[in-house]
Write a structure and sequence with these properties.
Elements lengths: L1 H10 L5 H8 L3 H14 L18 H13 L6 H11 L6 H10 L26 E8 L9 E8 L5 E7 L4 H15 L4 E4 L22 H9 L2 E4 L7 H21 L4 H20 L18 H4 L2 E6 L5 E4 L2 E4 L13 E6 L5 E5 L2 E6 L5 E2 L1 H5 L1
Parallel strand pairs: 1-4, 4-5
Antiparallel strand pairs: 1-2, 2-3, 6-9, 7-8, 9-10, 10-11, 11-12
């Protein structure tokens, strides 16, 4: 109505076009354009043409279906994870961006906070096998189970791909050896391992100080025997690459366990090994800067005797070795009549078996209860 009044006064020569435009708060050129559109279509010609619905607008029914699925089945998922499930399970065809915008407009997903100032990351190793990370994250991983478990992960620095992942009650020497065995048996020996300064990895004489280079833990001893450099991280930021992987895993794994109907540690570890690791690497691993591999095959299989507990013991007067409330009776040997007061080395394997060595010589093998296992039984 205001435009029609000003237009009428302009056409009656009461106002110039410049004065009419100034009264309406627009430019003279816009006033002439509006005048022409009014002559052609009346007041309807003044509608803002930018408000017309786009021909590419997403179907309302599909948007409502997506929002309903999020409310009913996927509440708490990140937009990216939710969009992947829609594509995989629900024949969804809309893109990630429109999905995120409608979730944010409906209040189901919060807008991301502004990122902090840029920090420069440590460059990745250029080739796989040059550096691996091993770390654990304590979390209520299983759906519907409030108990806290440790997820122990061994990953590649060059690609962020996972080599090993499993749940345990608590990380320690046994979990470190298990992760290393899974990597070495499947890929070979690598160059270096980057870990935190946990007591199963390093001996630290002073709290918060430098790790000892001479006093080794079982893990440190095994890595040295395998020729793998052991690198200590002195801050969480130094382990940023593995910390970011755990953020992804904490967000996704519990939901993925729920979708797969997994409720026990045993089932979770089988599913991680057989299903999840490959899918995770396909989705998140990046390409290495250089082709090839720094892994070296252990053709002699030395890792089987190295990646285990090794401790020295002195043979008693009855030619036995004491180990964890067990008495291991040494069998007759052609090397010498007896081994009384001799220092021997006991190997404790993951399945509970034991072996006693004198230098490179294997004196005897034992079951988990300390019973001597004869050579023909081992062969069988």
């Amino acid at each position: 109505m205001r435009f029609e009044d000003v237009l009428g006064r302009s056409e009656r020569s009461e106002l110039s076009q410049m004065e009419a435009a100034e009264l309406l708060g627009i430019s003279e050129r816009t006033f002439r354009r509006w005048r022409d559109r009014h002559r052609e279509s009346g007041l309807a010609g003044l509608d803002d043409r930018r408000l017309a619905p786009s021909l590419r607008r997403a179907p309302v029914a599909e948007i409502e279906r997506m929002l309903g699925l999020y409310r009913d089945l996927y509440r708490g998922f990140t937009v990216q994870h939710f969009h992947e499930q829609l594509l995989k399970r629900h024949n969804y065809t809309l893109g990630y961006t429109v999905t995120k915008l409608h979730l944010q407009r409906d209040g189901l997903v919060l807008r991301a906070k502004t990122r902090s100032a840029h920090r420069k990351k440590r460059p990745r190793r250029p080739m796989v096998g040059m550096m691996l990370h091993q770390d654990a994250s304590t979390h209520a991983w299983l759906p519907g189970d409030a108990r806290m478990y440790d997820l122990v992960v061994t990953m590649e620095d060059a690609t962020s791909g996972l080599y090993s992942a499993f749940l345990m009650d608590q990380e320690g020497t046994a979990s470190s050896f298990r992760g290393l065995r899974e990597v070495v048996s499947g890929h070979g020996l690598f160059c270096s391992l980057y870990t935190d300064r946990g007591s199963h990895y390093f001996f630290t004489p002073e709290a918060g100080g430098k790790v000892s280079k001479t006093v080794l833990t079982q893990v440190g001893r095994a890595l040295r025997q395998l020729g793998i450099e052991h690198i200590a991280a002195y801050s969480p930021q130094a382990r940023g690459r593995s910390e970011r992987v755990f953020l992804t895993l904490q967000d996704r794994l519990t939901k993925e366990f729920a979708l797969a109907g997994i409720a026990t540690v045993e089932a979770a570890n089988v599913w991680l090994r057989d299903t999840y690791i490959a899918a995770h690497n396909e989705r998140f691993a990046v390409g290495a800067e250089q082709e090839g591999s720094a892994f070296v095959a252990d053709t002699a299989g030395a890792w089987r005797e190295i990646l285990c507990i090794q401790e020295d013991r002195t043979v008693g007067h009855d030619n036995t070795v004491k180990w964890d409330n067990l008495s291991l009776q040494l069998p007759p040997s052609r090397l010498r009549p007896h081994f009384v007061k001799t220092t021997v080395r006991v190997h404790g394997y993951p399945d509970g078996r034991l072996s006693v060595f004198w230098g490179p010589h294997r004196l005897g093998d034992y079951d988990a209860r300390g019973g001597l296992v004869l050579p023909e039984q081992i062969a069988a």
